[in-house]
Amino acid sequence: MMNNTPPAPTRRAELLAAGAAAVTVVLWASAFVSIRSAGDAYSPGALALGRLLAGALTLGVICLLRREGVPPRSAWRGIAISGLLWFGFYMVALNWGEQQVDAGTAALVVNTGPILIALLGSRLLGDPMPPRLLAGMAVSFAGAVTVGLSMSGEGGSSMLGVALCLLAAIAYAGGVVAQKPALGSASPLQVTTYGCLVGAVLCLPFAGQLVREAADAPASATLNMVYLGVFPTALAFTTWAYALSRTTASRMGATTYAAPALVVLMSWLFLGEVPGLLTLMGGVLCLAGVAVSRSRPRAADGAGAPGAAPEPRPEEATDSAR
């Protein structure tokens, strides 16, 4: 009788990838609180550049200590595209968009990103789309909509802000899908470091604004900008790349739906924004959808046909598609 239990190294790798994804989601959720603070003193472009410079400096030091070399030529296309779209354009567009719309509307529009990732991943990377993944994403998106509606303010939206948030979501999805093939030949640290550098170069036209605003900004705003660069950028993007290299883009995109629930909790703890019942219900839906999308169907004991092969995991299906 065939033993379908994964070997110990595979199980350990899965646990490490899940832990890395959890670190990413928690840190990206914490960025909401820091952006709220730093955004009062820094303009969108200056905040993005300061964040990326802090991230690039942190990553550069780590690369020197680990003696990481330059990524191979085959990885540069994905690194450059993800750097331009995700590290550069996304951060500026999102910062600008959140100044034009209320937090709820921004959350609603930006949370179309994981859906776009799933569609692009299926089309361009051959990612499988199992029913549980689709069902989990539907539940999580419903939760994100609920959170967004409960947080929306009156008259706080503009067509420009909605368009910017939508462009940010598209850039986010494109950056993730472009990053996935690069991880096949470069390490997560290399992909993150050089992607961050590409984004920083793209934002260099905002250097003058950053210098002028840093001179007048309170220390708390500058510290929040540095925090954004060191933790939600340098650390969280590296743990994201590590997890992405071990699963599909679609599943990783679905995992980020846990962020709205964590944002609600952190806003409650650090900003004193007490969530309403509708907001809490939406957060629960987000977490439930992530749990469904990350689960695998249990094989019924003795129900399978004799000699039938076990259903491949998404990671295996992706490897065979490459």
Automatic annotation (TrEMBL):
Q: Where is the composition biased (Low complexity)?
A: 300-310
- Residue span of region Disordered: 297-322
Q: Where is the composition biased (Basic and acidic residues)?
A: 312-322
**Keyword terms, alphabetized:** Membrane, Transmembrane, Transmembrane helix
Q: Which InterPro entries match?
A: Alkyne_AA_exporter, EamA_dom, EmrE-like, TAT_signal
Q: Which PROSITE patterns match?
A: TAT
Please give the Pfam families that the UniProt record associates with this protein: EamA
Record-annotated membrane-spanning stretches: 41-65, 77-97, 103-121, 133-153, 159-179, 191-211, 223-242, 254-271, 277-293
Q: Does Membrane appear among the keywords?
A: yes
Gene3D superfamilies in the record, alphabetically? 1.10.3730.20
Q: Which GO terms describe its cellular component?
A: membrane
Q: Does the keyword Transmembrane helix apply?
A: yes
Similarity annotation: Belongs to the EamA transporter family.
Name by which UniProt lists this protein: Membrane protein
Its source organism is Streptomyces variegatus
